[in-house]
Design a protein that fits this description.
This protein folds into two domains: 121 residues, no CATH class; 168 residues, no CATH class. It is built from six helices and 20 strands. The strands form seven sheets. It has an eight-stranded antiparallel β-sheet with strand order 11-12-15-16-20-19-18-17, with helices on both faces. The protein starts with a strand and ends in a 10-residue tail after the last helix.
Length: 304
């Protein structure tokens, strides 16, 4: 019974005698090389079905089909299951090639395989880099407290205060402005800001002056940035966020929230209200570090 197949080139339907099973030829319409599939139960090359053959018979059959092939057969090292061939005994390695592959072509083949896989690995790394945490105004989540202090170190104008202001050092009259709670110190949580309330020069976000820009650290790593700003400027901040972080991933109503997210971090823009006046909030959060910080919050009988 003739074998029906489709040309991989021009997609024409072909009908060939079953005695050509397993052989290669050219499409009569476009000249594309076509391999005729084997017929179940029919011998191929006198050695049985290809998948039932010995490695040597498989390579001979591939050679008969005018394909080039190298078949490497080995047992992983018994001690540790390693695929490093230098750790596999010679008696456990068998390399079989088609007749057209001489010593020079074998060396070329090995070298090109190494280059091909190295190129693919490099391309994959370029296409899918590891996702990085979000940042706000150049401050990336995960940055160290020491790095933060060094970046914003300055003398507060008209005072003896040293900035940035942080709860691990400043427990004087500015303590309340850091929104700290007593348990934070024992939990390794530090709050910091780069301005003093008395300066009346709160940092801006998207050109909007904030009521408060607060940095939160756990074990010396930045896990959250909180910005509080007037709700009548919500549209300005949201438009700037879309421009910087891309389309909103999720939008929630009542209260309205805009959410951006990747594998390691999240941004939540929460709208307040104009009447009565309730400020809006922007939260930039490192997911893993947030979980760690929240795990240290006192619960139940500890919080009384």
């Amino acid at each position: 019974m003739p074998i029906q197949l489709e040309c991989p080139g021009c997609k024409a339907s072909l009908s060939v005698p079953d005695e050509l099973a397993g052989k290669a030829g050219k499409c009569i319409h476009c000249g594309q090389r076509v391999v005729v599939p084997g017929v179940e139960g029919k011998s191929i090359g006198g050695s049985g079905m290809l998948f039932e053959s010995t490695p040597e018979a498989m390579v001979r059959e591939l050679s008969r089909r005018q394909d080039s092939a190298m078949l490497l057969v080995f047992r992983p090292a018994e001690e540790n299951g390693s695929y490093d061939l230098t750790e596999v005994a010679d008696s456990e390695i068998k390399c079989i090639v088609t007749e057209d592959i001489d010593a020079a072509r074998f060396a070329q083949l090995i070298g090109s395989i190494e280059k091909r896989f190295a190129s693919r690995k490099k391309k994959a790394a370029t296409i899918a880099p590891r996702e990085q945490p979000f940042e706000l105004k150049g401050d990336r989540l995960g940055m160290s407290l020491d790095e933060f202090k060094s970046k914003y170190a300055r003398d507060a104008e008209g005072t003896s205060a040293k900035l940035p202001l942080s709860s691990d050092a400043a427990w004087g009259p500015n303590k309340a402005s850091l929104c700290c709670e007593p348990w934070h110190r024992d939990a390794g949580i530090v709050h910091a800001r780069i301005d003093l309330p008395a300066e009346d020069n709160s940092p801006s976000v998207a050109g909007v002056k904030t009521d408060l820009l607060l940095y939160h650290f756990v074990d010396g790593k930045l896990f959250r940035i909180t910005a509080i700003f007037p709700t009548d400027q919500f549209h300005v901040v949201s438009e700037a966020a879309v421009k910087k972080y891309g389309p909103v991933l999720r939008e929630i109503q009542k209260p309205r929230q805009l959410v951006w997210e990747n594998a390691v971090s999240e941004i939540v823009l929460l709208r307040g209200s104009v009447h009565p006046p309730v400020p809006s909030e922007l939260h930039v959060v490192h997911k893993e570090l947030l979980v760690e910080a929240e795990s240290r919050m006192p619960h139940g009988v500890e919080d009384i």
